[in-house]
Amino acid sequence: MAKQNVAEQFVDILVRAGVQRMYGVVGDSLNPVVDAIRRTDGIEWIQVRHEETAAFAAGAEAQITGRLAACAGSCGPGNLHLINGLYDAHRSMAPVLALASHIPSGEIGLGYFQETHPDRLFTECSHYSELISNPKQMPRVLQSAIQHAIGRSGVGVVSLPGDIASLPAPEKTVEHALVTARPTVRPGDGEIEKLVRLIDGADRVTLFCGSGTAGAHAEVMEFAERVKAPVGHALRGKEWIQYENKFDVGMSGLLGYGAAYEATHECDLLILLGTDFPYNAFLPDDVKIVQVDIRPEHLGRRSQLDLAVWGDVRETLRVLNTRVRTKTDRRFLDRMLKKHADALEGVVRAYTRKVEKHTPVHPEYVAAVLDELADDDAVFTVDTGMCNVWAARYLSPNGKRRIIGSFSHGSMANALPQAIGAQFTDRGRQVVSMSGDGGFSMLMGDFLTLVQYGLPVKVVLFNNSSLGMVELEMMVSGLPAYGTANHNPDFSAIARAAGAYGVRVEKPKQLAGALKDAFRHKGPALVDVVTDPNALSIPPRIKAEMVTGFALSASKIVLDGGVGRMVQMARSNLRNVPRP
Predict the structure, then answer these.
(1) DSSP string of 337-388?
(2) For the whole model, what pTM was predicted?
């Protein structure tokens, strides 16, 4: 058997760790690794048009599968392009291994062509970033990067010069067993007892849930029933907690709706479950707060806590559900459910009047029809900006759908690249990219990746010819919109020219048929919907000084607009309220 080189050993370890594909753009310093992938069963090289796409795609794959995913960039500018997607993966707690190939090892530090220092560049967006400068460091450096990525849920980076990758691997290497799954963490008995006393002593408990409630839906519902608590959520908690939730009071934050704000401020004990919700202006400062989180560094960094609980949400609630006293007083819960239903009824009326006849098409109407027609197990990838609003308000989670976006990093142009990674995990599953025209055009070159690989991603383009969220920020701050207008082509014509299915929608009556046809199409498709740039209204209570960038200082209701099928759920939940 021929002796392995470092690149071959690198690829073999990735396969052992469960990596099935590596996204990237080839280049000279990366060639030994790409060639090793070509000759190795169980892993494939996915050629994208931009390395930023590679990192976004890997992050999405990791979020869909829960397994390690990988991306790579060639030396200098190649791996530098990875950085934005890696920031997003890292902040989304997606386990990703990034290979940053490097200039020849003997030239490092001498200002060589394309020289950067990737082992330094990626330190802020990774748990581990190290340079392999000697074959003897393999496989230990790579294994450490993998363990950091999986064990700490984030990015691990290995910088590897091309000449080192071509050298023979050391004969007597130490390959330890790879950890490919994380354990659950149960809080200590002392913390549990303190938490039980706080809950039993509270009259009005509210739960506010984030992405850390993934896999804990049943436990959250049982706990809410036991303590008669309204349940609100952050945007990243929506897909995990909103469905089949008779305690639902909506979402808080800049895109919030319903009674979540009131429920978190009018309780006497707020329990934050698996959320690193960044907008502390929306959190109360005059009620007792408990936070439960698997990441101890998240505890207490948004608000002052009365108790910090380090543990997995599901395991923590399993213990609590056997120890806390069952409450019988539903008055607070019922009052919040009534407020929630009333709030949704109020905003629905603004966008249900002749919406099917309005031209340009209301984006709310597009999102509502999309939600109705998409598969029950569809994966939605959502561009940052106004598409976040429509996803938050209109996509209906059901326990099988997934909603992925750049919800923590807030990058433009994430939806199409993330759809690529999501679709590679299962070509038979419906993947819908909810793209804005600004985000789509930024990385539009990778629409060609869909065509090249025959990926059946459906791009639904909300085309309002503007950077809508930025215009909103300017307007609320009292500034005239400037530099936000996009002079757009007919994107459907571009899709057809690329070899995909493309259709343009300019009237509401065309929408449902266009979406159905695109969903039936076997390959990639783009539905270019011309939407109303003025569809979003701002409540008069919001003042310019309340908004700084993407954060709101002091308002209960932020963006007015419809809320789709959520109003039906709120009405249904009202049936649980006892009548006097």
Answers:
(1) HHHHHHHHHHHHHHT-SSGGG-SSBPHHHHHHHHHHHS-TT-EEEE-SSHHH
(2) 0.92
